[in-house]
Amino acid sequence: MALSPSQNPIPWVAAPDRKLTWRTWDEAETVVYDPGSGDTHVLDPISALVLERLEHQPMTRDALFEEVGRELGVDVDATLRGHVDKTLEDFDDLGLIAQGEA
Amino acid sequence: MKVGELTITELGQRLAFGGVDLHVGPIIVRLKTRIASLVENFATLYADYPIDTRTGLADIRVTIDRPKSLRRYLWPLSVFKLEGRQCFEPFALSKAFAMFEWGLNWSVMNDVHWMLNIHSAVVERNGFCAILPAPPGSGKSTLCAALVNRGWRLFSDEMALIQPIDGRIRPMPRPINLKNNAIELMRSYAPDAVFGPLFEYTQKGAVRHMRPPIDSVERMHETALPSWVIFPRYEKDSPPKLTHYSKAQTLIRLAQNAFNYSILRKVGFDTLATLMDRCDCYEFVYSNLDDAVETFNNLKPTEAAGAVSP
Fold this sequence. Notes:
heterodimer; A: alpha+beta; Outer Surface Protein A, domain 3; 3-stranded antiparallel beta sheet; two-stranded antiparallel ribbon; 5 strands; B: alpha+beta; 2 domains; 8-stranded mixed beta sheet; 6-stranded mixed beta sheet; 11 helices; 17 strands
């Protein structure tokens, strides 16, 4: 069975040309402005964590599962994996991330 | 010189020949018209506004007159022109003032992009502004009218104009546009207020304009910082209920309600983000105007907007 893009082991990386502007309030409410598209996005804490990590370095989805689980202090279970995979798919659709080395 | 210092004859002559350059907050509007009802309504509702007699420069130039075609002999119509170009289908002659108000809103939305422009009422008290964004029918203008008749200063019942450079809001006080049931409600709530004529059967139903308090007009150049963003919603028989609302979601809703967010791009985002830094954000449900005013009077300004801790 073929792997979906988000399940592929190739690392994900934030799109280098986007230069996102971030604002966070109360450590839980994050918005980012994407000058490439002119769109503004609201991020939940997990989505914000995923995008923030990928802005710093490429990471595989497995590494992201571990990173998100460690940051949140929770086990890496199917729920967490599902949330991260959906986040990766959404960011990919929006052009905010891509697979490959930076 | 103020509009109200001219006799109706003098005003009519000025409006017909050369036009009147009117200070409306940060812009100067030049109105030219020969329509007698528009002259009369303008004299009533803009009586306290200063006329610019020095610069000869207007930001927005509007002409409203009867069409030149033969149709005018069959149907009494008026035509709104911005910079000499007809912008809309002709309007009933008797409703020329209503067309002036809508057309002026439209002109500002389309032409004024040096400030972020959000579809919203704005009122101010003790140096702090409350921004009231809401869709039509939510009771935004009614609540705004009630507040400005109970000590709050009118910035606008239609648009929040935010300067990107410092985040301050520019007042653009104009007659408050009341619709349908709100008209009689406000006539009894503010019996001393001055109202224009009733325009029935418009696209928005019955419409009547309320003249802004003179203090709001005389202070039209006095900016203020925002401290609250409040989404009001009228709900029959509901007690006043003020609920904290997410800043991130508020930013998105304001961006969706802004006329030029996509034009200003990152400047627009930075302006809204700074606004969120300064403001407390709420959803507000109400049914009784006195209760609503009391709720607003009890709001505490944020320190980020410049309030000093006791």
